[in-house]
Structures are given as structure tokens and as C-alpha cells.
Amino acid sequence: MILKIPKESKEVYIKLIESGYQAYFVGGCVRDLICGRKPKDWDIATNAKPDQIQAVFPDSFYENEYGTVGVKTGSDKPELAVVEITPYRLEEKYSDKRHPDAVKFAGKLEDDLKRRDFTINAMALELKADVDIIDPFGGQKDLDNKIIRAVGDPEERFEEDALRLLRAIRFASELDFSIEDKTSSALEKKSALLEFISKERIRDELIKIFLTDEPSRGFELMRELGILKYVMPEVEEGWTIGQNKHHIYTVWEHNMRSLDYAARKKWPLEIRTAALLHDVGKPRVKHGDGPDSTFYGHEMVGAKMTFQTLSRLKFPKHFIEKTTKLVRYHLFYYNVGEVTESSVRRLLARVGIEDMDDLIKVRICDRIGSGVPKAEPYKLRHFRFIIEKLQRDPISVKMLKIDGNDVMRICRIEPSRRIGAILNILLEDVLDDPKLNSKEWLEEKTVELCVLSEAELSKLAEEAKKKKVGLEEEEVGKIKQKYWVK
Predict the structure, then answer these.
(1) Would residue 245 count as lying in a domain?
(2) Residue at a domain's end among 393, 421, 454
(3) Which domain holds residue 72?
(4) Distance linking the first and last C-alpha atoms of the chain
(5) Looking at the 3D structure of the chain, how many domains does it have?
(6) Banded pLDDT at 478 (limits 50, 70, 90)
(7) pTM attached to this predicted model
(8) For residue range 313-372, what is the model confidence (pLDDT) as tens digits?
């Protein structure tokens, strides 16, 4: 067997051997080499203890309770910058269903391999004149047959570390493998163990599923095995929920197809997540049944659900805010000759110029997920043209030709909420007509607003807010009437 091993990891291996210790490449790098995939990282198992490893490799670090030493190679390639070396080890029971209560160093490679999760990850590679694969659990055969199988008793493996439930799904999705029957039954039986796992760890595995070539496969497996309700129960609500005469798929099928299209296009995580969740609110707002059912307001309900889902899973704040925004505004309506430029400016003001392209991509996923053949029809291409045309127009208070200091000077007032109210009222006029964004006109208008009472100013500011929402909803209303929601 000819396997290409980079010189950086090979040099670490050879140096360990020359120092009198045993060394084997183990885990995912062995699996990926056999599969012909590029390993994402390199792990070596040895009979050397951490202090002995560090004596061989002074430029290393050791900051964990499992004995793993990170050896710096100096490579500028991220996957080769650090090679991890871990002593053979045995692990005692897992009281928290995630971490072993105690770790003991072992003397034999076989002891180390039998504690691993799946057969395809429980192989070791030894460099001799040729390459020798140590495979006590039939991992190569399972790779050939495209099977995910737990090492030993699957229920025990999942009891030890409940995150393995999601890892099984992820590997099956990533490699396009099936899950062996006993392992599959154990996944279903032990699915509730995920409640013991931190949301951050669940999120990290979920992201890896999202980033596979066909993420719907992972979501289908999670649903079939009763795991999805512990991960993203909101998505499962769309299962079997039929739509109306303008949709040939259930909400679930539509969302899965939208997600897979984003994956096929290699679009980033935010777009994939928004593609999955853009219609997540539909089951909660559905009225009626059959061809004339409606889903009014699903974009707003879906945005709230998206925010709650991603917050629960501890996604970063900026990711949550952007994805929620993409779901909230995915239903934007644009038809050449029907939608005014002022309403497009208002959409720009809500979404932000920097995220408009991603919003259009989510809309394209929505279209393809509905079964239409053309991803970007003329009206979407024209919409891109209008966006480019209008993106230099003022769409935020910061782009007005006057600011809060000017308002305070003109009105002779101290910092207060009145300033923000006046600026928002001015912005509404400018959104309708960008030519009004001149210092002279804005100052004249500010003089008029200064004399208004607090109540009058609040009323105007509130009307300005409603105007934003009103214009947007007016356009959404048109598409609802014409297409029964999309």
C-alpha cells in the first residue's frame, strides 16, 4: 500500500522511533489516508510518557489531562503546523457521559485502539520498509463497505461519550456511509444522552454536518434516529407539514433541498444555516390545509425561532444576528416596475449593503428548494442592478449630511432622545428622496422639528417607524396575494 505522508509528520514519527520509543499514526489521519482524502490533522500514539515526549521535542506544549503533547513543526500549513503525540491510554468510566473519570497510560497499542469510537477510527499505521496497517476491529473492511460501526458494544461507546452520537451522524454524512444496524439501534436508544453534552460541543459537530457536501443526509439521519429533537427540534416541526398549490414539497423537504443547494454552491455557513431555517416558522403560522393554505408572517416568526435556536446552541453573536436577519427578510418582494426605489432603500437600510448579496443567495436557495429550474431569473438580476445603483444613496442616520451635534446646535438642546427621534424622521424623508440629503434642507427641516412638543415629536417618530414597516409589508402583501405566499 502506497500512502503519501508529509515530511513534517514523518520527521516527528522518525525522531520518536530513533529516540527508542514505539510510534504509530492513529485515528482520523489513517482513515483519511486509506480513503484517499487529505488528513485535517496528524496524531501519533506512543509508549512514551508526556515528559519523555517533551524531552525529545523541546519545541512542544502540554496543557491537557490526556497526556497529549503538541509538537510544533514550523510548517506554514495549518494541518501540519502541529503534530499531536499521545501516550497509549486506558480510560475509566464516564460519569458525565463526556469525559473519563480518570485516564491511565497503557503499555500496548491494542489497549489504546479499543477505547476509540468507530472501527474506521481505530486503526494504526506503522512505517517500516512498507506501510503496515494495524486493524484489530475490521476498520479497513468497514471502509470498503462504507459502514460506520462502533468499536465493541455500541451502547457502551455512547454511554462513555454521548458526543459520539453526533460524530456517528457526521461521519456518515461526511463520508456518505451507512450506519451498521447495531450501532444504529444504539444511536436511537441512547439519543437522550445528548442532554448531558454542552451546547458548544453539539454546535461544533453540527457545524461540521452543515459543511458536508450533502448536509441534508445528516439531518435526515438525526430525524430518523430521534436525535434531531435534542439538537434542532424547531427544524423537525416541518416534517410532514404540507404546503399550498405553489409548492410540491413539504416544509421539511423544501428546507432540506434549499440547504443542499447552498452546500453544492460551496456557500458559507451563514447562508447554509439561513437556507435551512428560512421557512422554519411555517408550521407555527399555517392556516388551513390543502392547496389554499397560507403561512402569513412566517418570516417574522421564523426569525424569532432562528434567534432562539442559534442562541441556545451558543453560536457567536454576530453569526446569530446575521442569520436571523437573512431569515427575517428572505421574503423580500421585487418585480420590475412594481417596487419603488424608496422601498428598496428601506430594505437596504434593514439588511445592510454588505449582506444584500447573501440575502439574494438565500432567496436563490429558496427558489431551487421549491423545485423551480432557474436559480436567478431576470427580476433577481435586475434587483442586483437596482441594489448597485442605490447603494450610494443615504440609507442610515450616519449617512445624513447633518449629525447629532448639528441638531443640538440648531435646537439649542442637550443630549437627549429628541435628537435620535429628529434624525430618524429626517432619514425617512431622505429614504423617499435622496436629493433631500443636503445640509441646507436638513437644517431647515430640523428648525421645523425643533419647535414641536415632546408628544408631537414622538408621534412623528412613531409614524416614521411604521412607515418603514408599512412599506415593507405592503410589498410582502402583494406577493402573498399574487402567489399565496411565495
Answers:
(1) no
(2) 393
(3) 7-142
(4) 55
(5) 4
(6) very low
(7) 0.85
(8) 999 999 999 999 999 999 886 666 667 788 888 888 889 889 999 999 999 999 899 887
